């Protein structure tokens, strides 16, 4: 089962969490297979982004959607992972052209150095006129070179946009999408520093613990359970583990949203599409659900408000 496990190090300004998306990640891939599987390199990148978005959402305790986007200048033009405050997640990508089996992250999204990473926080209770918060950074490492992978991209983002030292380890394949996050906490207000003399706080704790985290291999992250990983990495540290959470795959697409999109398109445009084909087909990029509207559906949609539109075919 998919699981997210939070933990802290008593008396140290460091916290962490591990996420393992297993059955939920396989559900994403099962739904995707109906419209064509992602190339393995794209699949693994999206799995890492799904794990990362889940970690970052759980880390923020934000009431709304956290949307992680990579705007690429390679064959992957856009990759999106979205995580809600209750840890529902979904992912998608727009791919153009062929993908080499051994394609790396920079080959996929940063071939010419113009890729960028954006993280958007869209609150559930957003007021009219209120804009979501968004931070954007180029896909460039601190030394000016390419970032190399999703984890390095996000470490750079956290350092640039949030001024938080963070170590992230990510891995994904056809079976699971997993991640480990270690983060330095501000000394003031850090709950796990209760009882510690601030002057005696272990300032090297983050460096040491982040180094331990960096020794975790992709194979270990994908195949070992959370207690085993924590014991192998941090068996000498004062670790306190909390109750796990359960991330799940879920999509927020709906018939009402698709109807609204069609109405915004306009009657003339909708009817011009119908003139070329017998129905309008709209597919959700995230979950694969297909919404089909024939001429009767479209007529009802643009009829007087008192008329209740018939339900189109949904697959």
Structure description:
With 315 residues, this protein is of the alpha+beta class. It has two domains: 3-249, 3-Layer(bab) Sandwich (Hsp33 domain), CATH 3.55.30; 255-314, HSP33 redox switch-like (CBS domain Like, Alpha-Beta Complex), CATH 3.90.1280.10. Helix content is 32%, strand content 27%. It has helices spanning 23-32, 40-60, 105-109, 150-162, 205-214, 218-223, 226-234, 255-265, 267-276, 295-301; strands at residues 3-9, 14-21, 64-71, 76-84, 88-95, 116-123, 133-138, 166-172, 177-184, 239-241, 248-249, 279-283, 290-294, 313-314. The chain is elongated. The two termini are 27 Å apart. The model is unreliable at 194-200 (pLDDT under 50).
Q: Helicity, in percent?
A: 25-40%
The CATH superfamily of the largest domain bears the name Hsp33 domain
The N- and C-terminal alpha carbons lie at a distance of: 27 Å
Radius of gyration: 22 Å
Give the overall shape: elongated
DSSP helix count?
10
The pLDDT mean sits at: 86
CATH topology of the largest domain: Hsp33 domain
Strand order of the largest sheet: 7-6-3-4-5-11
Number of domains: 2
Structural class: alpha+beta
Biggest sheet details: 6 strands, mixed
**CATH first level of the largest domain: which class?**
Alpha Beta
Overall strand count: 14
Supply database-style keywords.
CBS domain Like; 315 residues; 6-stranded mixed beta sheet; 14 strands; alpha+beta; 10 helices; Hsp33 domain; 5-stranded antiparallel beta sheet; 2 domains
